[in-house]
Amino acid sequence: MVAAFLVFYFDARGLLSVTGGPKRADVIVLLGGDTGGRVVRALELYKAGGAPKILITGYGDWSMNRDYLLRAGVKSNALIIEPRSRTTKENAEFSSELMKARGMNSAILVTSWYHSRRALACFEHFDPGMKFSSFPSYESPGALRNSTSIDFPRVFREYPAIAWYAARYGIFSFESAPTDPSFGEPQ
What's the pLDDT at 34? Predict the structure, then answer.
């Protein structure tokens, strides 16, 4: 029991984080649930030329993320809003509908590092024909990027969420093909 706890804690980044994939896509998908590191990461990717559009998804915080991006100089016509989703499953389901309707074939997912594996699995589940990359945030600008600086409560809530999504929706996070973790930052 103690050994499992230590593995889940000290290797959380290795188990939960998925980083990498193509550096360019049709759209950057900014998942809701955070108005700090995720929006900063999406802006970094957008400014680096990762995609011409940002899809902001998530009930409750989408307007704060939109306002941040607009203040940072992103033009309103570069933003797509999906304000209905309340869960990761709905983020993927509703965003996939919008992307398909716009003829998009590739997306860069931006969420928190500990949420990236489940988010990628959900998006691949709802749109298996689309190419996805994952470039998660690390909570806040300048945050340490190692497993000793993890947010203990959020990380440990992710493990049961992965199990719940597998049992309830048939979305298996560890079947998702992880991208190359050494891929690095977009240029």
Answer: 78
